[in-house]
User: Which sequence fits this backbone?
């Protein structure tokens, strides 16, 4: 059963993955808080460690090219267990979307619209998001290509503007923290930017037919672009802010505030705001889309467009219940969330793959077996 | 027709929503309702444990009487307000309460601390500034030799708003060396370092009545957040030279009877730290500089080629002496203002863990070697001075 | 404020729920009703300032009970 009949190319998928990862580059405070000015070391380690994880997602996509992840779960675990795991994934997608919605609301509230109730920017974001979701993955992916390039330009420009303020010795010393800090940071990066890519397994049926080689190329191409931006942004922030990096909730914003190249080129934090709005909006849109598809899949319906608005409103209503404050959100992201996300992002996909291999799935699909569309 | 109507209704609803949500009513700020802060100063108050805050704002409505502010002073172009309280928050609340306009921090040009407050410690007074999204961390900070409010109430002939004057002055000084302009973020980074001694410029208000001036009076040296000593303007030269990145700065060299003014076009300093066998450290500063001759007094006996060589040697000696003198003062104050400890912690992290507890001891025993290489490629519009010309006849 | 929320939800139901019923898409109706009830309940509770227990706090307690989780 194909819920969304629109199709995207491999290249569009690659830019979606890259843009999705880039959105984590602007909210690096939860990384910096642990290893401080050595936060770049876990990112470098994760670039290597996440290769098998990305390969696992790519393999699941190649093994089940016509099925989204919830359909894969049904096939591998059976209809009952598959549905139960599917429900947990629906919760996972909705929670991810809600958490990112909190970020955009918090950012607007803290920095620019301090008097405006938090609900206003989040409602506006959700309304535009559901509008995009109703038009399908094709529209969402068109946004990603252009804006990935814009994001690269923004990061490049910010580095040029801040070059006179960078002290690369701030990246030193290395490996002076207790080992558990590096383990914690690596775990966080593996789950929060990288592991979240599991959501793209819900987009599999919308992909135009790709060879395994092409799948590898687009998956890893997207991840490479995203992780490079994450690393470069972190290096920039560490070089500029040095030991003060971990104090700030938005280090990128503070760094860009320090731009001072003559009278005209100063106070460039607007670049950060524009980039954050673009990136977080896209991330929320993809997560909202995936949540809507997941809900539709759970109930076995193709009418996802009619569910988009109510799922968006559910995400918006659910978001404020997650954390009482941004401080607890940050602490949770550092200490607990990696453990919550690990089963959804690493253990279950791995188990699914192993079981599929053992059961020699997928079986060949005959017209008699193919489910009728509802 | 039905689809067309639906489309029209949707567009109408969307436009209505946009009008409501994008006009920014909640967060609207009109300029008439704002007091644009140009400078803020913190001092000890008469009541022990309290602080006094003086805020200088630009008067954008010059025709009106001074807005009825608390303790209002200042020229027509500026409004000066004062408040006393237990904390910066309490003082700013009092200022806001007693004003018909809201303080706008976004364009604050300078943050000042009175010398007495600096000696007591300023860390806790930085919390609001660091926390508030409106307050900017790139604003320079300075210590006032006296009370901070003196600098904000000073009547300068150059500029009516002393806050703006100081902001521009420090900006101009930073073109010579970034060390002259200490931003709050720079001070915080030094504070967080733990061992390096933060340094903040000192200013002094001189003159009387309408002919007041604000002059640079050296640098305040801190231990953690408390001021423990100072560098004079002359000692400050050694400090800025040791960091390199100096441009467009003038030094005067002499050998008794003869004197030369030299203009440093560029000066770079490469700093290297190595461990000694006995557990101490050796610091070597390698300075390269391009200098031009700006003024010559004397040197009648010399011909131009040998003069340039001679001046280079004098300049090298002068630069070395400036840095050495400043280093002696830093050792006397037991304040690592040069950040050598940071260099050691980055290059030798393992040894630093053992060394940081006895850093005072190590700092007092540092082996400082300074190599200076000066090049004088040109002498201005003339080569020989008039005195030299006379001697050659 | 509660009436504004109920009004908003009524509008959503009008827009999306009625067409599903008209077209007899019962699975979609079931999906919509479940999501609608959950969203409406959460919004009304929030508007009435009734504290909603946090799912993430429950997870935190569970993770800590398992002896996992990093030190804060």
Assistant:
């Amino acid at each position: 059963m194909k819920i969304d009949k629109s199709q995207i190319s491999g290249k569009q998928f690659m830019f979606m993955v890259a843009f999705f990862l880039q959105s984590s580059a602007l909210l690096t405070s939860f990384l910096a808080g642990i290893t401080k000015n050595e936060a770049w070391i876990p990112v470098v380690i994760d670039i290597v460690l996440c290769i098998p994880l990305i390969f696992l997602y790519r393999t699941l996509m190649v093994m089940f090219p016509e099925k989204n992840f919830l359909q894969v779960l049904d096939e591998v675990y059976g209809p009952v267990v598959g549905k139960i795991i599917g429900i947990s994934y629906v919760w996972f997608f909705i929670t991810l979307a809600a958490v990112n919605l909190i970020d955009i609301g918090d950012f607007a509230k803290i920095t620019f619209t301090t008097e405006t109730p938090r609900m206003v920017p989040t409602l506006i974001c959700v309304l535009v998001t559901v509008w995009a979701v109703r038009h399908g993955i094709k529209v969402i992916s068109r946004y990603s290509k252009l804006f990935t390039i814009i994001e690269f330009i923004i990061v490049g420009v910010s580095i040029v503007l801040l070059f006179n303020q960078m002290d690369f010795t701030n990246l030193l010393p290395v490996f002076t923290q207790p080992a558990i800090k590096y383990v914690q940071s690596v775990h966080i990066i593996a789950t929060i930017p990288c592991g979240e890519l599991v959501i793209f397994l819900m987009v599999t049926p919308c992909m135009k037919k790709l060879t395994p080689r092409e799948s590898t190329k687009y998956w890893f191409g997207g991840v490479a672009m995203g992780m490079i931006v994450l690393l470069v942004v972190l290096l920039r922030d560490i070089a500029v802010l040095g030991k003060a990096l971990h104090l700030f909730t938005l280090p990128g914003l503070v760094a860009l505030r320090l731009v001072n190249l003559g009278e005209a080129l100063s106070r460039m934090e607007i670049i950060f705001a524009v980039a954050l709005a673009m990136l977080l909006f896209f991330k929320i849109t993809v997560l909202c889309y995936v949540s809507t598809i997941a809900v539709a899949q759970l109930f076995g319906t193709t009418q996802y467009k009619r569910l988009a608005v109510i799922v968006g409103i559910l995400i918006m209503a659910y978001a404020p219940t997650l954390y009482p404050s941004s401080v607890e959100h940050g602490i949770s992201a550092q200490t607990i969330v990696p453990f919550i996300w690990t089963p959804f992002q690493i253990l279950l996909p791995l188990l699914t793959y192993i079981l599929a291999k053992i059961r020699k799935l997928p079986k060949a699909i005959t017209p008699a077996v193919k489910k009728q569309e509802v | 027709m039905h689809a067309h109507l639906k489309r029209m209704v949707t567009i109408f609803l969307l436009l209505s929503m946009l009008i409501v949500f994008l006009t920014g009513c909640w967060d609207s700020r009109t300029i008439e309702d704002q007091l644009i802060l140009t400078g803020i100063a913190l001092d000890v108050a008469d009541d022990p444990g309290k602080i006094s805050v003086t805020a200088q704002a630009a008067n954008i409505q010059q025709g009106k009487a001074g807005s009825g502010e608390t303790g209002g002073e200042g020229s027509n172009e500026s409004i000066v307000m004062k408040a006393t309280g237990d904390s910066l928050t309490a003082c700013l609340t009092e200022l806001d309460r007693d004003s018909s306009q809201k303080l706008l921090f976004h364009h604050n040009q300078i943050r000042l601390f009175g010398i007495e407050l600096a000696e007591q410690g300023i860390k806790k007074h930085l919390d609001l500034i660091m926390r508030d999204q409106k307050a900017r961390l790139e604003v320079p900070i300075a210590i006032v030799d006296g009370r901070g409010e003196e600098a904000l109430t000073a009547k300068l002939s150059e500029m009516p708003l002393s806050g703006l004057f100081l902001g521009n002055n420090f900006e101009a000084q930073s073109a010579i060396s970034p060390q002259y302009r200490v931003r709050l973020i720079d001070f915080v980074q030094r504070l967080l370092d733990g061992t390096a001694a933060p340094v903040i410029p000192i200013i002094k208000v001189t003159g009387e009545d309408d002919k007041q001036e604000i002059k640079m009076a050296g640098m305040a040296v801190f231990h953690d957040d408390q001021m423990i000593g100072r560098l004079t303007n002359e000692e400050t030269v050694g400090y800025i030279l040791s960091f390199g990145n100096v441009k467009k700065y003038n030094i005067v060299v002499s050998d008794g009877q003869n004197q030369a003014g030299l203009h440093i076009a560029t000066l770079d300093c490469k700093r290297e730290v190595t461990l000694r066998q006995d557990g101490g450290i050796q610091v070597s500063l390698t300075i390269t500089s391009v200098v031009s001759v700006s003024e010559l007094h004397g040197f009648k006996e010399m011909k131009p080629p040998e003069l340039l060589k001679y001046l280079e040697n004098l300049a090298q000696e002068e630069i070395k002496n400036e840095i050495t003198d400043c280093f002696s003062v830093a050792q006397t104050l037991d304040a690592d203002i040069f950040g050598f400890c940071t260099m050691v912690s980055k290059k030798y992290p393992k040894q630093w863990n053992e060394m940081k507890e006895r850093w005072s001891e190590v700092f007092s025993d540092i082996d400082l070697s300074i190599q200076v290489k000066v090049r004088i490629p040109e002498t201005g519009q003339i080569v020989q001075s008039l005195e030299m010309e006379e001697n050659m006849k | 404020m509660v009436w504004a929320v109920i009004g908003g939800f009524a509008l959503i139901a009008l827009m999306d729920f009625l067409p599903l019923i008209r077209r007899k898409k019962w699975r979609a109706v079931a999906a919509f009703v479940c999501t609608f009830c959950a969203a409406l309940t959460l919004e009304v509770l929030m508007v009435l300032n009734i504290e909603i227990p946090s799912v993430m706090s429950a997870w935190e307690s569970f993770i800590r009970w398992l002896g996992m989780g990093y030190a804060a």
User: Anything to note?
Assistant: Residues 79-112 of chain A form the longest helix (34 residues).
